[in-house]
Amino acid sequence: MVESRVNREVEAFSDLEALSGAAAEIIVAIARESVQARGRFSIAFAGGNTPKRTYQLLGDRHRDAIDWPRWQVLFGDERFVPSDDNRSNYKMARDALLAGAPIPIGNVHPIPTDTPTVGDAADAYDRTLRDVLADGTQLSAIDLVLLGVGPDGHTASLFPGSPVLAERTQWARAVEAPTTVQPAVPRVTLTLPCLNGARNVLFLVAGNDKRPVVVEILEGGDGARRFPAAMVRAAGRTVWLVEQSAMPPREQNT
Q: How far apart are CA 180 and CA 165, in angstroms?
């Protein structure tokens, strides 16, 4: 089922495997279009458990269909932990895809976590984003941003009520995770100006613990505006791929 809601495309899937397969196909298609149009493809990876299978499918099922040297890999957020820590989004992506994909090492841009402070890491990544996305004298948009949604409506590391939601100029900021989110360690996140400037945003959402917030966001009522995930609208296309258990009950079998 594909449905358009207030400039969002929404598609429901029976399980995570089906969702991951569709996500991988969308990524491959956007990558191909981007390379044809601009000679390269920039993507911001999401962390968490949901996108892991998508990354595996890109490296397995779609390996020969991808022009890997044209990829520029960025990250939507990162916990301020060592890069070999199991809580690291970079480590998950490396283990699932990057270690085996023929992407030049200089085309992979993790958020640094070896700086003296998390604020230093955010400032460094803001500079990295602007360097990677430089197009002559202008800044180009990220071609595709992958995002998830937490049960509290956060996305990337943009949490409800965070002052970082008001950021209008920087593309990366340091943020303290609330104690209700585990692991509650400092993080670096891309900001709304960066996310909303993207050409494409693809949400990957799975798990029945997400259903209440997904229902509110997709219904689009005034209350949904408090959720950071509802604040993300790509300059181009925004697509939500939602596993069945996270969908409203009336739509689970449609």
A: 18
Burial 17-32 (b: 16+ CB within 10 A, else e): eebbbbbbbbbbebbe
Confidence category of residue 225, pLDDT binned at 50, 70, 90:
confident
Angle at 173 between CA 168 and CA 175, to 5 degrees: 120
* Residue 96 φ then ψ, to 5°: -80, -30
CA dist., res. 196 & res. 236, Å (int): 9
**Distance, CA of 60 to CA of 69 (rounded, Å):** 17
Q: 74 near 109, Cβ under 8 Å?
A: yes
d(CA 75, CA 146): 9
Cα 164 to chain centroid distance, Å, stands at: 17
List all residues 6 or more positions away from 39 whose beta carbon is below 8 Å from its beta carbon: 70
- Contact between 166 and 223 under an 8 Å Cβ cutoff? The reply is no
b/e map 209-247, b = 16+ CB within 10 Å: ebbebbbbbbeeeeebeebbbbbbbbeebbbbbbbbbbb
Query: What pTM does this model have?
Result: 0.94
Q: How far apart are CA 197 and CA 145, in angstroms?
A: 10
What is the chain's mean pLDDT, rounded?
92
Name residues whose C-beta falls within 8 Å of residue 216's C-beta, 6 or more positions apart in sequence: 153, 223, 224, 227, 230
Phi, then psi, of 201 in degrees rounded to 5: -125, 130
